[in-house]
Prior knowledge:
The complex is a heterodimer. Chain A is mostly helical. Chain A has 2 domains: 57-191, Cytochrome c-like domain (Cytochrome Bc1 Complex, Chain D, domain 2); 196-341, Orthogonal Bundle (Cytochrome Bc1 Complex, Chain D, domain 2). Chain A contains 15 helices and 2 strands. In chain A, helix 3 (57-67) packs antiparallel against helix 7 and helix 10 (209-219) crosses helix 14. Chain A is globular. Chain B is built from 5 helices and 16 strands. Chain B is globular. The chains are: A mainly alpha, B alpha+beta. At the A-B interface, helix 1, helix 2, helix 5, helix 6 and helix 8 of A face helix 1, helix 2 and helix 3 of B.
Amino acid sequence: MKRSIILSTIFAIILFSCKKDEDAIEDVVTSGPTPYNLVIPPNMPPMNIPANNPMTVEGVALGKKLFYDPILSGDNTQSCASCHSANFSFASILQFSIGIDGMPTRRNSMPIVNLGWQPGFLWDGGASDLESQVIGPITNPVEMHETLENVLVELKEHSEYPALFKAAFGEDEITIPKLMKAVAQFERTMISANSKYDRYAAGQESLTPLEIQGLEVFTDMTKGDCNHCHVLGSTFSDFAYRNTGLDSIPFDDGRYAITLLESDRGKFKTPSLRNVELTAPYMHDGRFSTLLECVEHYNTGFRYATNLDPNIAGLPKGRMTQQEMEAVVAFLLTLTDTEFVNNPAFRP
Amino acid sequence: MFNYGIGYICYMNKSLYLLAICFIAIVSCKKDEEQSDLTTPEELPTVRLEVKNQIDGQPISIGVLNYTNPAGESYSVDLLRYYFSYATLIDESNNEVKLNDHTLIDAFIPADNIISNTVAKGHYTKLRFYIGVDEVHNHTGAQEGDLDPIYGMLWTWDTGYVFFKHEGQFIDADGNTSGMSYHYAKDNAYKMIEIPIDLHIESGSKNMDVVFNLNDLYRSPYVIQFDGNNYHQSISVNDAEWLQQMFANFGTAFSVNIP
């Protein structure tokens, strides 16, 4: 009895003196967003997630809704998914996408896959983080052609978004930085690491003799030498910027427009090869419609631009036979991850 | 947290009770204590810094071709915005008091151009501030407050803030009215400005005006003429000379007035 009195006294004292703390804890438990458990596949490196944008279940769900919502475009007809379709690994089959005003984009729509590991965004790396990339297409006159002011007005007047933003960020006010963070959170969940090649590398599936030959040509530094830039394994790119000799004098300044370094003229980001089967047409200007054309470009088609990547410039033309090029293509097709493109978590 | 504490107490003898209670009370209430510290300030004096924009002593009105730049061209101001960052008072012993982080100054929204903060008593002899956004904050747009992209100062295709914008019209050599647009940006354009001051702060609040004269930005050491030079976005090698002139001129465009 004595003990229980002491205990309840202690209890009361602590309860009383710590009321403020307790309230704070309850707030977090009852109304805070739920941390999102991002599962990184064993064959992928750790992902750096910005400290100011921790992933939450509510944030990812909001980001997905925004990604598929035409409310973000000027006339509410196009969403991010209009040019980043799940069927094509979130790229477009068009050489240049057509924005809401019927104007074509300047470059080919890039796939959205494993962006959580990329250091720079857009073909020229102009967007320096995933969050910042989000508002580029929304405001670009040849894409979704909307103002950030209008986006905010429409989201604030919407029947669902105010509650969804509050659930994701715990604050009443909808802001552009929160929109950017939500879409980036969704995009960080879009991980592809279960292609036939991944299962082969894990010892779970075998490749055909042609695919094996293609893998060998891919890594052979005297043949394909693809591996130099499209690093075999996790991300299939080192994401560096290169002039790959598409033209002797580039039509598009590429990375130069960002750095103003003459040495960056005509350089573009090395894209990942994951799901490359689905992302035609190819190159920053979508000039090639087949993978064989791409391989052929690196075999014989490349031009000696002044800043042609040294990895290409050092290789003789015509070093691969037609059969070897076809083998490389067969290998590239093993990078298709149907589980990824069919994942309902990424579809509307 | 204290639920665990109670549970453990049941297994302890009485003498440990008190220790445990003290420990729990101290640890679990740490936050309260800190808060109570904050709520008992020693009435620090306040500095109220106001950034005032003018053109050779005249107030700036929007959209009128009323002003004459040092090159003798009539011009107007439709938009005048810039980042005024890390304003810091420095005293005789080089102690520093930072007053703000990044404040977006808008010539036509004077109420937003006021920075208030508490400072220690003392004799402050220098004001330091920056025009622009420091490199750490200049390459992501996911920032709230005055760095929110909603203010139209963030480039979306080359992540970075425009540090300073003046858009308007001017009358060119042929007498025609033309548009002009100066967007000053990029990491190496981030400009530190230090101005000697004589600010004695004893108690209560003290006002300090930082005066920006737009014409000084186009006067010294370089006279910047708009004709043939009316469109600079800091994105081309053709902007390099203009950027360098603006960078130098910013150093002469501000003065401090302590009423």
